[in-house]
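#structure-requests
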Amino acid sequence: MKVYCTIGMQAAVEAMMPQLESATGGPLDFTWATAPMLVRRLQAGEETDVMILNRAGIETMVKEGRIAPGSAVKLAGSPVALAVKAGARKPDISTAAALKQTLLDARSISYTDPAAGGASGVYFAQLIEKLGIASEVNAKNTYPPAGGFSGALLLTGQAEIAIQQKPELLHIAGIEIIGQLPGELNMVTVFAGGIETTSPNAAAAKKLIAFLQSQEAKTILRSKGLDPDAE
């Protein structure tokens, strides 16, 4: 059975892979990328059995008739967060002013390319424009590879601060979360799932979606930086 899954949910889904394969009765073939990248592939003609995307992606697939009626469900939410290499000094991001100064003082940063459509990259690009520091920040930014993790650039020394969805940062060993964006600057992305209308594995797909909504799954989601109760 094929599953297209956003990297925002990757760490949590990988952690529950044995339970998912047990619930569905067979091996699962996962494709990982940002939700917009997966949506574009589906719109180009690719097919899958289960989609785990951001809510906007699932809503797009519903409108295009790609999601089986009644199968779309909310799974969890994730804030945008910042991280540094493990052991490094944790700068102040407790207020909008402190965040702005920290971004100006940083020697290098990494956030995801907004052109790839990932929610954190799009939002952060808008945020630094709003703060009036876009040119300064972008001059020292290095984008991770498309569909990749900005936290990985902390380990290579290409970035001093990484910005991405909290679960995506937690996916990288050897880095530490500073915190999420402060106060009203915070943004939560909600992830959702659904079953492809034409899936030949609809029964197994329903079992996968059901497990993702179970209490056991919710515990794993929380351990990976996701909030199953987010709206």
